[in-house]
Structure formats: C-alpha cells, structure tokens
Amino acid sequence: MARAGQVGGTATAPRPTLPAPTSRGGQSTQTAPAAQEARQGGAAHRQVAVVTGAGSGIGRAVALALIAAGWTVVLAGRRAEALAETSRLAGPAGPDGPAIMTMPTDVTRPEQVDALFAAVHERFGQLDLLFNNAGTFGRAVPLEELEYDDWRAVVDVNLTGSFLCAQAAFRTMKAQEPQGGRIINNGSVSAHTPRPHSLAYTATKHAMTGLTKSLSLDGRPYHIACGQIDIGNAATEMTGRMQTGILQANGQMAVEPVMDATDVARTVVHMAALPLSANVQFATVMATNMPYIGRG
Ligand SMILES: NC(=O)c1ccc[n+]([C@@H]2O[C@H](COP(=O)([O-])OP(=O)(O)OC[C@H]3O[C@@H](n4cnc5c(N)ncnc54)[C@H](OP(=O)(O)O)[C@@H]3O)[C@@H](O)[C@H]2O)c1
Where is the composition biased (Polar residues) (predicted)? Predict the structure, then answer.
C-alpha cells in the first residue's frame, strides 16, 4: 500500500551486512482510513508497533501481548534466533494469524536503526507505536571500579539507543499521513531511586525521563504522544540476582519479591490502546512488596 509522506529523509537502505527482515501474516495491506479510525478511536486493530529488545523478558511479553490484542508487531533486537522464538510463541502464521516482522537490529548503531524504520515504512507504510525497551544493567561494581567501557556500554544502549529509536520513530510519525503516533519509553524505578552499584544504569534511566518529557513536549504539534513505564522487579534475565540475593542499601544481601513480566505487558497494551488525545505520562508497575516504597 502506498502512503503519502517520507520517513524523515534519513532512512537508508539496509546495509548488506544486516540480516534481512522476515515477515509473516497478512496485515501489510492496511488502508489509510483504517489507520485513521484506529488512531482516533483507540482501537488496537491493524495498528503497527515496533518493539525493541523483543527477544526476551519484558520486550517479548509486550510484543506477545500486543500481537494478542491485534497489533502488527515488528520485533527488533540483536539476536535473530531470540526474535524468531518470540515470533514462534505468538502462534501459527496464516491469513488470520499474527502479523509479525523480525528485524535484527543493534540499537546503538545509527545505520541499523535507520534500516529498521525504513523497513517498517516500506512494508507497512505506517507506524503507530514504538516501545523503546532495549536496555542493559551493566556490571554491578563499586563506582570506583567502573571502567570507562562499562559506562559507555550502558549509555550506548539505554540512552543513545533509546534516542536513536525515538528520533527515527518521531520522524516517521511526523511525516506520515495521518500524522502522529505514540512512543512508550521503558524507564525503571531506577529513574527515581538507585540501587547500590548501579551508577550507569541509574544515570541513564534518569536521563530516560528527560527523553520522555522532551518527546512529549516536542511531539505536541504533530499528534505524537510519549509516555514512560517505570518497572520494578519483573522476573526476567536482568533481574535474576533479585531472586537469588542482591545487595541492599544497608549492605546486606536479600532476596527480593518479583512479579510476572506479563503484568507489565498488560499495562503497556493499555497505554498503547489509548486514543492519541490521551496519554499515560508516567506509570510505575512494581512487585508489590519489593523494597522500594518505605526506604527499604
Ligand atoms: N525486569 C525488570 O524488573 C526491569 C525493571 C526496570 C526496567 N527494566 C527495563 O526493561 C527493559 C528490558 O529488560 P528485561 O528485564 O526484559 O531484560 P532482558 O531480558 O535482559 O532484556 C533486554 C533486551 O534488550 C535487548 N538489547 C540489549 N542491548 C541491545 C542492543 N544494543 N540493541 C538491541 N537490543 C538490545 C536484548 O536483546 P539482544 O540481546 O537480542 O539484543 C534483550 O532482549 C530494559 O530497558 C530494562 O532496563 C526492567
């Protein structure tokens, strides 16, 4: 389907070194009126989402929940096999089955991010949602032992990667017809309060709040909404240490309560399904009894 509008003029063709996107399902033929209806009415049906870090944890849970809610979902992340597994978990493809595209992408690489959003534009002609989720905790070491490369690795993924994806999505949403869309950034309770030995992670998650606020403000003229979900202790690879014992502010080690990633996913789907005239600016979803509220 041809749609008016350019992808911001910066999208480049996928580089030869990039794995080609794979897709299945039959929802690449949306009509502009259908997209308009979905945007204005808030119905998720036929809308197109990009989820970064979709090969594991929260990204996988959110991708599966969006697919179950009728979204067409583009799965992005570095590991092609992990993305393929998310796609497999969505169930069998078919004319009425899920519409999914997988696109191996390193969000720290500008040319790969450009290729991702160019591929989305080419295949679907629209973008309604970016779940800006890819992230890394980095090495948990005392501040004085944090190497420059450790710092850079976390900043590159959590902040620069989030910026690159948000900018590419923003350009697409501004240029498309009908104009607009939604960006949901994955912050953290660490966007508010640090854990011990988490300087790079905490600094980048605080920075994510600035990204969210600026995107919200700069998106106003273009019907681009931006919100942030701040998660505490969803059971994923990243939070494995919380289930075995993790350093507390008082110096003790403690096992912390966790919650299921699907409970996060349900919140993201709710945020995503709102009409663009409404926005959940910030939402905190946390394991009820984790040591956060109450200073421990
Ligand atoms: N779990 C929690 O309780 C919790 C709490 C607060 C915030 N969060 C946030 O939730 C997000 C997801 O974390 P998770 O808990 O689901 O952990 P996870 O399973 O480790 O997920 C991290 C995801 O990020 C992707 N990723 C990392 N570097 C990337 C890169 N350079 N390019 C593209 N993708 C990259 C990984 O995929 P590849 O390795 O395939 O690239 C992976 O799928 C993170 O932003 C994290 O900060 C989680």
Answer: 24-33
